[in-house]
């Protein structure tokens, strides 16, 4: 199928002693083959939980997950293990959970061992090939992972993710810890690898410019829900949801063609609310400059507007405010 990955109405609730936390509350998204879907939002919006659910590192409370037409919630443990080869993740600090005394050969070779893809001399050859794909090489094989800079460590993390020859890579804040110039290099590497290998990405970041650069389609998350979804460029040049508008106006735009124009930077209003105690109605209403009476009591439906965009906001309800009463 043209769609590689699909999530329908994903819900993830965590129970703590005092609260039920709706970390993810009805998220749907689909990633076409060879394309990138971006997920953007502040911390606490549920982005990383979506990442973990997508790869079944966490089980959803309800919803559907499909990968290459396969129902991920019905496969056996064994089938899931085989599927895991085809879905990888790159974290913000991909080597952070590994022993710093591990050599690059073992960092990148480990998935080859775990999935019994290659060992011995064959594994060394494959690791060299993977390192070359990410701009490193045989000279790096026996270095320790802690000897590398942030950007190089990220390249090693990407090589490790590529080891099993995946179709989907989830990038969870993969460049967030890097300097802007190094970020650009890693993003361009990811784009080149996508073109070369036909990879699909779920690209998660809090940085709008980074998501805009990478994603064909962007989903904006707020407290466990997708509030706006649309084509990467139009979503940012013409944001419709008040939260997307706030995010866009808070970020200096990267637009060389409009260099002369004066841009206002507006700090986001208010603190993001907590997922353990979300506001009633539209979760965004305490921070929304356009909130109406119904916003406090009634969760907005998802409205489809022009150019395929969807917006979860009462402002786009064709029936208007009165319909909510
Ligand atoms: Fe603002 Fe109401 Fe729209 Fe929520 S539904 S974003 S509070 S206008
Ligand atoms: Mg996160």
Automatic annotation (TrEMBL):
Organism per entry: Thermopolyspora flexuosa
UniProt-listed CDD domains: ABC_NikE_OppD_transporters
Ranges where the record places region Disordered: 255-283
ATP-binding found in the keyword field: yes
Boundaries of every ABC transporter domain copy: 5-248
GO MF assignments: ATP binding; ATP hydrolysis activity
Biological process, per Gene Ontology: peptide transport; transmembrane transport
Family, per entry: Belongs to the ABC transporter superfamily.
Listed Gene3D superfamilies: P-loop containing nucleotide triphosphate hydrolases
Xref: SMART domains: AAA
Organism superkingdom: Bacteria
Keywords: ATP-binding, Nucleotide-binding, Transport
Keyword ATP-binding: yes
Annotated protein name in UniProt: Peptide/nickel transport system ATP-binding protein/oligopeptide transport system ATP-binding protein
One Pfam family, short name: ABC_tran
InterPro entries: AAA+_ATPase, ABC_transp_ATP-bind, ABC_transporter-like_ATP-bd, ABC_transporter-like_CS, Oligopep_ABC_C, P-loop_NTPase
């Amino acid at each position: 199928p043209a769609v590689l990955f699909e999530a329908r109405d994903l819900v993830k609730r965590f129970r703590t002693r005092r609260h039920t936390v709706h970390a993810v509350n009805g998220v749907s998204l689909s990633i076409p083959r060879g394309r990138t879907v971006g997920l953007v939002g502040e911390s606490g919006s549920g982005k990383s939980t979506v990442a973990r659910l997508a790869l079944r590192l966490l089980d959803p409370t309800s919803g559907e997950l499909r990968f290459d037409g396969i129902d991920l919630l019905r496969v056996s443990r064994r089938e899931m293990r085989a599927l895991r080869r085809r879905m990888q993740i790159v974290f913000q600090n991909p080597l952070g959970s590994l022993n710093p005394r591990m050599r690059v050969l073992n960092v990148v070779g480990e998935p080859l061992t775990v999935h019994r893809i290659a060992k011995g001399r064959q594994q060394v050859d494959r690791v060299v090939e993977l390192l070359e794909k990410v701009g490193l090489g045989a000279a790096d094989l026996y270095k320790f992972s802690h000897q590398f800079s942030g950007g190089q460590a990220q390249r090693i993390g990407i090589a490790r993710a590529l080891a099993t020859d995946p179709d989907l890579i989830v990038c969870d804040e993969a460049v967030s810890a890097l300097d802007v110039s190094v970020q650009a290099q890693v993003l361009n590497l990811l784009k080149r690898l996508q073109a070369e290998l036909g990879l699909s990405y779920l690209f998660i970041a809090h940085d709008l410019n980074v998501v805009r650069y990478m994603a064909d389609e962007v989903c904006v998350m707020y407290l466990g829900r997708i509030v706006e979804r649309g084509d990467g460029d139009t979503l940012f040049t013409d944001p419709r949801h008040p939260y997307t508008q706030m995010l866009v106006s808070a970020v200096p735009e990267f637009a060389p063609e409009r260099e002369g124009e004066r841009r206002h930077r507006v700090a986001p209003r208010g603190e993001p609310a907590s997922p353990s105690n979300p506001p009633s109605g539209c979760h965004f209403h305490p921070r929304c400059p356009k909130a109406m009476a119904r916003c406090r009591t009634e969760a907005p439906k998802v409205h489809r507007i022009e150019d395929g965009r969807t917006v979860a906001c009462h402002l786009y309800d064709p029936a208007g405010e009165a319909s909510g009463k």
